[in-house]
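Homework help thread (please don't just give me the answer)

Our assignment gives two proteins as sequence + structure token strings and asks us to describe the second one. The first is just a warm-up. Here they are:
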Amino acid sequence: MTEPVFVDTNVLVYWLDARDTAKQQRASQWLAELWSTATGRISFQVLQEFYVACTHRRDDLRDPIRSEIKNLLAWRPLLIDGSILEQAWKLQDRFRLSFWDSLIVAAAKAAGCRWLLTEDLQAGQKLDGVTVVNPFLTSPGQLPS
């Protein structure tokens, strides 16, 4: 895998959530591949959502999640700026996405990603040059080059 892959929040959450071992295993597989190939991409929106999702009811997880987020800074998270916001609005209107999903897609596009790993959108859907991949139905080796 040589092209950058944008990772949505749900992949990070399942990576640490042992309640669904199948999804945890697949998320771990994806993240290991993205780390080894240096192709993982995220935004600060994803990091913020990840932090809130994991610590919302678990104050004891704050320090471990903060540590994971510090590690993920190596992926050079994108800031949501005015141009990404404008692109998100266009995507929201064109594809009828939620605002938050449109921000994820706009950030993926801005990061030069061909692939967006998420279970929140329809697998195979093409959104302005970004293709949605459900990481729990597709393994890293199944992405076309």
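The one we have to describe:
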Amino acid sequence: MPPEAAPELVESAFTLETSYAGVLHEGLNLADLAHVLDLRARRVIPAEAAAVLLGALLDIDAVPADQFPYDPLDGEPYNSRERVLVSRIGTTAGWLHAGRPRREATRVAFRLYLRRAVAALAADAASLGGALVDQAGATAGVLFPDQTYLQQAQPSTVGHYLLSFAYPVLRDGARLLAALDWVDRSPGGAGCVNGTGLQSDREGLAGLLGFDGVITHTRDAMWQTDGLVELLAASTSLVSTQDALAEDLEIWSSAEFDFVSLADGYSRASVLMPQKRNPYALSIIRGATAVLIGRLTGFLALQKAPSARSDKLIFAYTEVPGALELAGRTTRLTAGVAATLTVNAERMAEALAGGFSQATDLAEHVMTACGLDYRTAYQVVGAAVRRAAADGRRAIDLTADELSVAAKELTDAPVELDPDALARVLDPATIVATRTGTGGAAPAPMQAMLAETEGTAHRLGTAAHDRIHRFDRAAAALRQAAREVADADA
């Protein structure tokens, strides 16, 4: 830090930059080790100096981030590390700067952090998808009145409803894995904008770090942020799907609905009102969604600037990891809620029997059985439903005579309906059984969707964990190679 730095600059900018030292610490360790090994192999750094430098870097690598003396007075984490290195090995530490600005080291470290965090979030999405699929399978035969605008729409099943959340969760998990392909590319050797003449290629450094290749254009490698927007968008979308589920469950767990109950571990009792058992976990899910939307929006605002500006990334080092971490915690919470959810099948059946969610199927039956166009059949059923509702009666109470009267009032011609056929049309279970087309709630399409989503969740989880294991192996191999060189040339 220059001596003239104002205390306000230290308090704001340098403290901010030091705050993300924990995010970058391990990545900076690995980036430094790989940089020294690569330049030693190119005979840029003398073998003896490389051994001393690697030994000191391995010592730093053994220190946890929260125990390393990062200090805002140094300006940023890279400078704190340099201060410690110089205090230990003197001017030999200066070899670390050969062909590489501190910005490059930070960019490498950030991607090393991100690739693990993104893979972990994809794995969390797979776990949530699996929990939703399991609960959907357990409730595939539980009838309930599916809703739009908080009004009964059509008879369905709880399992069918839950799968409508499993699909987008798993799609967002796939989006995260696709974004991981962007993250898992090395900016190493890119320099500030146009690389360095000390490295004839950049692939060797990428290989040491376990990256799946390099970012082609050097200036783009150092300053690109579009992939970060994609990460934030996918993370926000993932949790937004959970928000929709949480919004529904909060309503349905109320005494007024009593459709579902959250497990005790995801609820919290009121300290004042003995009768209240609050679905507290759902509030956390909803609040996290709002925070993630804010982070995505704020980061998008940062992009409106000229190229090659540090402010785009200075804030990214806190906002993006924070968003990924929050999305992960929230996704794991939602998975727990889904896995332990209790469904009140009796209350749902009661609500279904007491409403008019069969009206659409009834209108279609009147159309096909009586030869009316659908609009006219719709109006006939609507008139009969309104009359029944006004009398405090239900859809299952409608009779063929009532529908005939309604038709005569509207068309001057009565309709004739078979009472037995009408009873079948008004039976919610029969209605659900007719939904045999792709994506329907009948048993056959439900089993197909359950198998599909279960397989997708398994593949997503396996792919995410495989990437994490590969990253771990690469880091272990890099540390082992550095140790061998440090010991051999010491």
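TA reply:
I won't write it for you, but here's a hint about the kind of observation we're looking for: The chain has 19 helices and six strands.
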